[in-house]
Amino acid sequence: MPQYTPPLRDMQFLMQEVLGLPARFAQLPAYADVDTGTMDAILEEAGKFAVEVVQPLNLSGDAEGCTRNPADSSVTTPKGFKEAYAKYVEGGWAALSCDSAYGGQGLPFVLNQCLYEMLNSANQAWAMYPGLSHGAYEALHVYGSDEQKKLYLPKLTSGEWTGTMCLTEPHCGTDLGLLRTKAEPQADGSYKITGNKIFISAGEHDMTDNIVHLVLARLPDAPKGSKGISLFLVPKFLVNADGSLGARNPISCSGLEHKMGIHGNATAQIAIDGAVGSLVGQPNKGLQAMFVMMNAARLGVANQSLGLMAVAYENALAYAKDRLQMRSLSGTKAKDLPADPIIVHPDVRRMLLTAKAYSEGGRAMMIATSALVDEELNHPDEAVRKAHAAQVALLTPILKAFLTDKGFEVTVLCQQVFGGHGYIHETGMEQLVRDARINMIYEGTNGIQALDLLGRKVLGDQGAALKALGKLVQGLVEEEGVNERMADFINPLAQLAGQMTGITTELGLKALQNPDEVGAAATDYLCVMGHLVMGYWWARMAQTALRALAEGDVADKTFYEGKLQTARFYFARLFPEAGLRVRTMRTGSKLLMNTDAALA
């Protein structure tokens, strides 16, 4: 059975030493009382919950999966899932970062993200049940009517009810403009919703009394395409005015997907047969409201891969220190043993260091972006809120695609460290590989994220958000450019940052002549941007570690030295991928599109 130790020291390093969050929170009235002690206590208890309650169910939940009862379309989750969820609600974890007006604890979003990283490391399939609820909460918090907020937000906040997002249909995939689900207005102001949805994570289960479905559908007079989509709240059980449950709504699970991974989560086919729903937000502007949930989910999916990278690395490292095989090429290292531990072999260290670099670099990206979300929502200065909102919008597709791409790469490498033992279920490594693969696909495939980044977030605003990111990088370069101890980190970062303005301008000019140029370059462009952002945070972590070591008698010397060694490995062995991607993105669209004979 795989082991898991929450990365509390690394989270503290990032939040307190690199980002200085306690001082930043002091500038936010909502979080002025959130100090270091509060943060540490929450993270410690969250780690205990993940390890003691959720992680023991991961292997068994994967083996058992979910079961649908054909008689009533109900779904039973794996043994122990329901009881673990009850403990989650009892512990107040669902309410951690929710609005106190609806029973929430009102704590920073970044702490919620740290909680979810640990839950994803422990058991991604289980963590998806409460995770999606938070997205539904966010959408209703922003766009819900007063009545909807009153009836639904307290229950979503407490975790007594869960939520889903019902977007896609069998024929349309990501192209939501093609959806056919209908919404018929009723005399009492409600709507009758009819249609079929697929790939609905946590779409039906036995863990709560009610499920709040947020469903995209079309009104009778809706314009064609994505401009004619509205968002509706469709509960599993109707809710009475006093908050009690009423009649069963005709929205049900018509089947469960038989999946490659995340077996413990019910990925449901949903049949909606005249179910009663209420409009969320304005008619024909459903995507605007749903994007609140979708963007939250995209950061959530990035966090899923971050969690998987962390636990994969931990187990691969432990295995490499224990597994005996062959002797070191440079001479015997364990003379009292029949063979050396495989960690002495350079290629094993390459795999482990790759996993460590992407895992810890990804955590820095996630925590830094989550802190921006807190300031976007709570900073007293409107200009700061707008600037941070633009940065979060730019970073969201980068985190979703880059971290899930690297998450799959890391889990495969960590499985490789185990050799043949990584291929069997008991070690847990093959499950991590299977679970990681879905993260590159759902909540918008990574190709879609790349198009969103280059086409909308960069070229669409004439590079304004990209320039703001560039200024952040340039500030670090100017601060440390003459520091020889930082040269290994600053020089490659400065070189890539200097290239990005010219590359982006070049792609924009090409796209004016042929829009396919955006599609041809987008995936490479996102990877380059991923390395630019991760490189910036690895440089910041190296800067912090060097300063700590310079203070002399450092109690945690090994920790800081490990940061520097990993940073040097990242910049020497992984960061150069950005240069290769710059070359390939410049090959243009003709190389891809003039290939009818090759693809005949």
TrEMBL record:
GO molecular function, one term: oxidoreductase activity, acting on the CH-CH group of donors
Domain named Acyl-CoA dehydrogenase/oxidase C-terminal: residues: 284-452
Acyl-CoA oxidase/dehydrogenase middle domain span: 165-273
Domain Acetyl-CoA dehydrogenase-like C-terminal, first and last residues per copy: 474-595
Function: Involved in the assimilation of dimethylsulphoniopropionate (DMSP), an important compound in the fixation of carbon in marine phytoplankton, by mediating the conversion of 3-(methylthio)propanoyl-CoA (MMPA-CoA) to 3-(methylthio)acryloyl-CoA (MTA-CoA).
SUPFAM superfamilies for this protein: Acyl-CoA dehydrogenase C-terminal domain-like, Acyl-CoA dehydrogenase NM domain-like
Coiled coil start-end: none
A Pfam family: Acyl-CoA_dh_M
Name of the protein in its database record: 3-methylmercaptopropionyl-CoA dehydrogenase
Substrates-to-products reaction catalysed: 3-(methylsulfanyl)propanoyl-CoA + oxidized [electron-transfer flavoprotein] + H(+) = 3-(methylsulfanyl)acryloyl-CoA + reduced [electron-transfer flavoprotein]
